[in-house]
Amino acid sequence: MKNPARLATIAVASLFAATMAMAEMEKQVVWKLVDKKGKVTYVDKAPPKEFDGKVTRIEVDLKANRALLVNMGEATPPTLLPLTAPELKRVKADAELARAREKHEEAKKAREDGNEPTPEETQWIGKVGGGARPVPTDAYHARIKKLDDALKAAEAELARAQNTARKAAID
After folding, report:
1. Cα Rg, the chain, nearest whole Å
2. How many Å apart are CA 41 and CA 58, to the nearest integer?
3. Would you say residue 92 has pLDDT above 80?
């Protein structure tokens, strides 16, 4: 290469690319996906273009996530250490597990609280000999089915989160 301007341009471009690569190593991108049913999923790869829901891009600065280590026997200042990728994975998995547990408890409580039919969901049926008895309507059964489905979905999400947290703890 006899052209010094071209050589300088290549050198600057290489330096820029190296700088950008180092900056990318300090950050991790995570996407939060919320589908039409409200299910929230976090992924580390860009979602497909045809995903039908809300997509939020989250940049995680790995240098900002630091643990504070304090040695109680010495009077030295505390040392801040960045979280490693496996530690960050564990922290994310634990947070997802806590959210799944909370969602499961809410679904369980909603199912228990919604067990009895409301007055609007009760139909009174008369007997031949007189008297009447309450019978739940189709609206009651539809509401109970919806609560059961929500509970099953929360249980499945909790199982997935527990599995992910177990795997993250092993890594």
Report:
1. 28
2. 13
3. yes
Q: For residue 151, what pLDDT band results from cuts at 50, 70 and 90?
A: very high
Which tens digits make up the pLDDT trace of 37-75?
A: 888 888 888 888 888 888 888 887 776 666 666 666 666
Strand pairing report for 66-69 and 79-82: antiparallel
Categorise residue 43: left if φ over 0, alpha if ψ from -120 to 50, beta otherwise: beta
Nearest alpha carbon to residue 90 among 14, 16, 167, 2? 167
Q: What's CA 25's distance to the chain center, in Å?
A: 23
Q: At 165, list the tokens.
A: 């947290």
Amino acid at 18: A
3-state secondary structure of 69: strand
State the Cα angle at 73 between 71 and 79, rounded to 5°. 25
pTM above 0.70, yes or no: no
Token code pair at residue 169: 């703890």
